[in-house]
Amino acid sequence: MLLNSTHSASSSYDVIVVGGGIIGSSIAFELAESALRVLLISPNKKNCEDGASLASGAMLGAYGELTADQDTLEERQELDFRVKAQKIYPDWLARVREASGQQIFTSQGTFIIANNAGDRDRANLKSIKSKLEDYCEPHEWVEPEDVPGLDPNNSAAAYQALFIPGEGSVDSFELLNALEVALEKNSNSTILDDKVVSTDFGGEEGRWSVKTEHSGEIFAPNVVVCAGARVPEVISDSLAMKLKLPQVLFGKGTSCILADAPPIPHTIRTPNRSFACGLHVVPRSGGRLYVGATNSISATAQMSLGIQPQDLLYILGDGANQFNTALRNSKIEETRFGLRPITADGIPLVGKTQFPGFFVATGTYRNGMLMAPLVAQVVVSEFLNQEPPTENVFSPLNERRRSADPLQRLLSIGARDLMATVREPGGFLPYNRTRELEAYIRLLFEMAVLDQSSHEALRQKANQMMQDIPLDEVFLSIYYEFVRTVDSSSVPQSNSSSLKI
Ligand SMILES: Cc1cc2nc3c(=O)[nH]c(=O)nc-3n(C[C@H](O)[C@H](O)[C@H](O)COP(=O)(O)OP(=O)(O)OC[C@H]3O[C@@H](n4cnc5c(N)ncnc54)[C@H](O)[C@@H]3O)c2cc1C
Fold first, then answer.
1. In terms of domains, do 412 and 457 share one?
2. Which residue, judged by its Cα, is nearest atom 19 of ligand 1?
C-alpha cells in the first residue's frame, strides 16, 4: 500500500523501516515476505535527490572493487561477504521480479582494464586475479583490443584486460522501482512518503517513537534505521549518545546516463583509483550507458554541493578518452549524484543494537547495491532470531577493530592517492615527478601531523639552507632534500641538492 504524508499512519506495525534506498527497501521486502507488518518511511525521489542507490552504477563487483592495499582482516571479511552476496543475487532478483511483475535489466560479465592513467592498475589487477584464484572464480586475461566496445584515445590505451564472467550489473532505477512495486503489492507492507525527523525511545518498554515531518509521531515495537548517509540526522541526540555508533560520513559520487552511445555490452571498468571507484561504463536498458563515478568524502551531508563541473569533466572527459572516444557524441540523458554512506572505521553497520527492537543498516559505501540482499537477510534473521545466512561481521555489537599501524598506512596510501587525484582529469606528470611529490607530501604530512621531533634535523637543515643562500632557487634544493629523505631512489643524484651549502 502507498500512503502519502497527509494520511494517518497510526495503524499498528511490527516494524518501521526508515529510508527507502536499496538497503531499506530490501530489508522491508524481506520483512514483508516473512509476514511481518512493515511501514517503510522515505521521502519520494523528488524530495530526496541525494540517495546513493539511484546514482549508483550497481556493478555487482565483489572482486572488481579490490585493490592491492586491501588485506586487513576487515577487508577480507567484507570481500567474503560480497562474494556471498554475489552468489545469492540471481535468486533474489528472481524473487523481486516475481513479487513485482517488473522487468529488471541486468548485464553479465565485467572487463577490468589497466592503462597508464592509473599508476597502480597493474598491481591492482594482479591482486584481483589472485583473489579470483583463491575463490576459484572463473576469469581470464584477454587482449584489450578484444574487449567489446573498448576504443580509447591512443594516449590512454589499455595494456591489460581481465574478464570476470560472473561479475555483472543491475539497473539501479529498475531494481528500486521493482522493490517499490513489490512492497505496494504486498498487503503486509505500507510505504509512507514522508521524512523522519527523529527516532527515539517510545516512553515505555518495547516501544519506539518515530517522528515525521508531516504524519506526526508513529510508534512501533521495532525500528530499522536505513537512511544511508542521513542516519545521524534521524536518530535523536539522546539515543545516539547511548548507542555510541561510529560516525557516519558520506562519499559524494556523481554519475551520468548516456543515450545514443556506442554499443558496450558488458561493464568495462578500471580498478579503484585515487580515493574513488575508478572509471566505469555499465550497460543499461534500451542500449543506454551508465558512466561513473567520482567520490569525495565529507563529514556532513550539508557540505554536498550537488553535481559540479569537475565531476562531469572527470567522468565524461576521462570516460571518453579511456573507454571509447565516440562517447563524446552521445546524448546526456541524466546526471545523478548520491551520498555513499561510510562509517569512520570503514566497516558497514548492520543489525541489532544493544537496545532490543532497534536496528541499523548503513555504511555500505561503494558496495551497497551488491550487498543489499545479504544485508537484508542478515537483519531479518536477527529480527526473527533465526540462524543467520552468514556470520554478521558488520554487527554494531562487535568490537570495532582498527588495523595495526593505521597512521603509517594512511599516510602512504593517502599521499599516493592524493597525487593520483591532483593529476585528474587526464593529467600525466613528466619523469618521476609523481613519485617525488608523493614523497614530499608524505613528509610534509608527517611534519605537520605526526611527531614533529623526528624531522627536527631536516627542519634545521632547511632553515640553514634558506639563511645561507637566500635565493628563490634554494626552494628547489630543499624540495629535493626532503624528497631524498623519504625516498632516496626517486631522486637522481644530479638533482638531489643542486645548490651546495
Ligand atoms: C555514484 C555512485 C556509484 C555507486 N556504484 C555502486 C556500484 O557499482 N555497486 C554497488 O554495489 N554500490 C555502488 N554504490 C554504493 C551504493 O549505491 C550504496 O552503498 C547504497 O546505495 C547505500 O544504500 P542505502 O540504502 O544505505 O542509502 P541511500 O541509497 O542513500 O538511501 C537512503 C534512503 O534514506 C532516505 N532518507 C534520507 N533521509 C531520510 C529521512 N529523514 N527520513 C526518511 N528517509 C530518509 C533517502 O530518501 C533514501 O531513500 C554507488 C554509489 C554512488 C553514489
1. yes
2. 368
Same domain, 410 and 372: no
Query: 428: burial class by Cβ within 10 Å (0-12, 13-18, 19+)?
Result: exposed
What are the backbone dihedrals phi and psi of residue 419, each rounded to the nearest 5 degrees, phi first?
Answer: -65, -40
Partners of 340 in the β-ladder: 251
Q: How far is the CA of 51 from the centre of ligand 1 (A)?
A: 5
Does the beta carbon of 53 sit less than 6 angstroms from any atom of ligand 1? yes
Residue 450 corresponds to which amino acid?
L
Distance 251 CA to ligand 1 centre (A): 11
Question: What share of the chain in percent tops pLDDT 70?
Answer: 90
Q: For ligand 1, atom 51, which residue shows the shortest CA distance?
A: 56
Residue pLDDT, tens place only, 178-234: 999 999 999 999 999 999 999 999 988 889 999 999 999 999 999 999 999 999 999
Residue nearest to atom 35 of ligand 1 (CA): 19
User: What pLDDT, on a 0 to 100 scale, did the predictor assign at position 150?
Assistant: 98
Specify whether 363 is located in the same domain as 418. no
Looking at the structure, tell me whether residues 294 and 427 fall in a common domain.
no
Q: Is 369 in the pocket of ligand 1 (CB under 6 A)?
A: yes
* 3-state secondary structure at position 113: strand
- pLDDT tens by residue, 16-71: 999 999 999 999 999 999 999 999 999 986 556 789 999 999 999 999 999 888 78
**Distance set, CA 262 to CA 156, 158, 188, 258, 282 (Å):** 18, 18, 44, 10, 12
Q: What is the DSSP letter of 21?
A: S
The span from the CA of 154 to the CA of 175, in Å, is 37
Pocket test for ligand 1, best of 41, 86, 164, 369 (most atoms within 8 A of CB): 369
Ligand 1 and 293: CB distance under 6 A? yes
Query: In the chain, how many domains are there?
Result: 2
Helix (H, G, I), strand (E, B) or coil at 280: strand
Q: Is 147 exposed, middle or buried (0-12, 13-18, 19+ CB in 10 A)?
A: buried
Domain extent, residue 352, equals: 2-383
CA distance 475 to 485: 15
Residue 396 belongs to a domain: no
SS3 call for 234: helix
Which atom in ligand 1 lies closest to the alpha carbon of residue 212? 42
Mark whether 330 and 192 lie in a shared domain: yes
Distance between CA atoms of residues 375 and 395, nearest Å: 11
